[in-house]
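Following up on my earlier message about protoporphyrin IX containing FE. Here are the inputs again, as you asked, copied directly from the submission form:
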Amino acid sequence: VISGAAAVGIGAGLDRVLSNSERSAAAGAVAEPAVPFYGEHQAGIVTPPQSFLSFAAFDLTTSSRRRLRDLLSRWTAASEAITAGREYAPASGQVPADPGEAADIAPARLTVTFGFGPTLFAGLGLAQRRPAALEPLPRFAGDMLETWHSGGDLCVQACADDPQVTFHAIHMLSMAAQSAVQLRWLQHGFRGGPSPAREAGSSRNLLGFKDGTNNIQPTDHGALSRFVWVTEPGWMRGGTYLISRRIQILFSTWDDRRLREQERAIGRRKRSGAPLGARRERDRVDLHATDTHGDPVIPIDAHVRVASSQNNDGQRILRRGYHFSSGATPGPIDRGGHMINAGLFFIAFARDPTRQLIPLLRRVTTRDALTTFTLHTASAVFAIPGGVERGSFVGEELFS
Ligand code: HEM
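Thanks, got it. Here's what our run produced:
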């Protein structure tokens, strides 16, 4: 690892090998490395999105509640240490508990967020404690799900401004699990931007459009309590639910569409992000506007119309997804060759997925122009317990 001072000396030529934290250090940016682990809500939900994600799902290998409690207690201690930039070093053991690959670069605004999948409750004889809102997701139209990449008893979402820091978090927590769980799937992701997104504004997605414009803002406490934070059952107070969908973008279909058609599929201008018929990104999305022929300015199947809260019973969600890109995948049969295997690892938070996300996903997977250009290949839902107090561990109240 090259030090910040050395980085300044080397200059822009080696920019690509420098981590984000080094880049900020080199640029003399104000250090803002640590996000508090303890609080009313888990971090990583309304935290302004960091640049990188490593998201893991695990399956329990035990039916012992005590072993799960011990695991959650170790995971809490380990996460508290690494999010504060300390090494995880429990007293016992000859083998290092911390593999060490983030030693000089952490914490880079690391957050670690834990969740429980619907299958966890059955496996522990806790079926009656499974919240009604935590239903396994149904299949949606066009789903091409890879089951090995879907579901899971537990999830760990690690986000940071350095990809090695998120990798390390998952690596270390897997080691700390001491075989009480096994890894089910792992997804890495990234978000672009001129600088790490410090504000939850919009950033470009892999279709080239601004994304996040009409999202719930982290400072909008009214919307957060209405649409995101859970109050019941008691052990979930201050928590929420997370839905993930791995959505591959079919670039072979999208890339040769005319700009006008791309913009009509989204319902917004590509460059400015303005809604069709408006001038600026933040202008109101007017779903009633018609053109001189009486046709809707924002087409009937435009993504922003289909996903709008106005067509979803007033329901909103908090989106916090990341792009993924992993190698190449075979292209269309008639063209042969390969295409980029990339897309959106959609993550959304809501206080009741059965009312907010399942109906929305039904619409987005049937009536939306984006169905031509996307393929949903993985799916999962998790209950995200409320925040952790010092001296306690994540999800502790589930066991009380
Ligand atoms: C590859 C898949 C997807 C892409 C590229 C995409 C892209 C976008 C873009 C560019 C916008 C407009 C800017 C904004 O307001 O953020 C948007 C809005 C939105 N998207 Fe998506 N999206 C995808 C999948 C989904 C899915 C699966 C859902 C829901 C289950 C969803 C829900 C929403 C919502 C609720 C809005 C705000 C609509 C409004 O009220 O104006 N998106 N999306």
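One observation from looking it over: The pocket of protoporphyrin IX containing FE is lined by residues 205, 207, 209-215, 245, 247, 249, 266, 268, 285, 303-304, 307-309, 317, 343-344, 346, 360-361, 364, 370, 374 (CB under 6 Å). Hope that helps, and feel free to reply on this thread.
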